[in-house]
Automatic annotation (TrEMBL):
GO terms for molecular function: carbohydrate binding. Belongs to the bacterial solute-binding protein 2 family. The keyword Metal-binding does not apply. It is found in: Cell envelope. This is Simple sugar transport system substrate-binding protein. One of its GO terms (cellular component) is cell envelope.
Length: 326
């Protein structure tokens, strides 16, 4: 994509000052002043601890880098994101970044941004487009790998068990990249053991309240549930409440695997109420500002920047909990 503005001194400073951090740390140095690069960022919403940490990380890194951030929160609605992005185009910002609520339905909007000569950076969640050149780069996690890690833990955990393992899946927001890709990665991993069977799945919308409700429905509909795969910590923590309300012991009677590794998720894991937590790092702010700096100064950026992530069992959670940032 053609870069529409000549590099400003500020943007050059930005590139020099901001360094990439593998884990998406928030420590972007900077402070380049008011006349900075103008970044319009459309955020999904406020659905989870992960999302709040992601927003804070972007705000913090923008401030440190001297980027003038116009942040819009879409409350989980694609139409709100579309309206925000059109406002960014009208305002003629330097760069647009967004974390798409759902994967599909972005082509027209991305084409409008291209027609206006504004580069777009996709963050956190991938878009499913007919033309991938409509965005310059994508910064975010490998959600398929996250789902796979969750499934591999179950395969290993039930290695010596004979007989069916009944799993329920509390999925993320329908149509979103993390829901689609975590489901796919998980299904791929558990295929290794035919006894592992998903007997129910429901949309937990990445929230604690919805996770609790979906789990309560599963408990009413099925006896003998062995394990839950919740697509994020909030849903898993909601499931914990539903399982306790049903008189069962989460983590003991029913195993629970989640994704994110938020402080609350790791605390529940350390207490034994969750069993395994796959990390999804929301601290993308400094990496995003680095990409913004490169894009506005005509530098080449990779098409895809994947965030390094790990996974936690109980002992690992205990070891990191004291200084968990989110
Ligand atoms: O897109 C990342 C996912 O969205 C996180 O796993 C979840 O917590 C968030 O709401």
């Amino acid at each position: 994509m053609e870069v529409r503005r000549a590099p400003t001194l500020l943007a050059l400073l930005l590139v020099g000052l901001v360094t990439a951090c593998g884990g998406g740390e928030d420590a972007a140095p900077g402070g380049a002043g008011q006349d900075g690069v103008r970044l319009g960022f459309s955020q999904v919403g406020t659905e989870s601890a992960w999302r709040l940490a992601n927003t804070r990380s972007i705000e913090h890194a923008a401030t440190n880098a001297g980027v003038r951030l116009d942040l819009r929160i879409a409350d989980g609605k694609q139409e709100n994101q579309a309206a925000a992005i059109r406002e960014f185009i009208s305002a003629d910002v330097d760069v647009i970044a967004f974390s798409p609520v759902v994967e599909t339905g972005w082509d027209t909007l991305l084409q409008e941004a291209r027609d206006a000569g504004i580069p777009v950076i996709v963050t956190d969640r991938m878009v499913d487009t007919t033309d991938t050149s409509l965005f310059v780069t994508m910064l975010g996690s490998d959600f398929t790998a996250e789902g796979r890690k969750a499934g591999e833990w179950l395969v290993e955990h039930y290695r010596d068990r004979h007989g069916r393992v009944r799993i329920v899946e509390i999925e993320g927001t329908a149509g979103s990249a993390p829901a689609n890709q975590r489901r796919a990665g998980f299904a791929e991993a558990i295929k290794a053991d035919r006894d592992l069977q998903v007997i129910g799945s429901g949309d937990g919308d990445f929230t604690r309240a919805q996770g609790e409700q979906v789990m309560a429905g599963f408990l009413a509909a099925h006896t003998g549930i062995d394990a839950v795969f919740a697509h994020n910590d909030d849903e898993g923590l909601g499931a914990v409440e539903a399982i306790e309300a049903a008189g069962k012991r989460p983590g003991t009677d029913i195993k629970i695997i989640t994704v994110d590794a938020s402080r609350d998720g790791l605390a529940a894991l350390a207490e034994g109420r969750l069993n395994y937590v796959v990390e999804c790092n929301p601290l993308l702010g400094s990496q995003l500002m680095e990409l913004v700096g490169k894009v506005t100064t005509g530098q080449t950026v990779p098409r895809r920047v994947v965030v390094d992530e790990t996974a936690f069992d109980r002992e690992a959670a205990k070891a990191v909990l004291h200084n968990r940032q989110y």
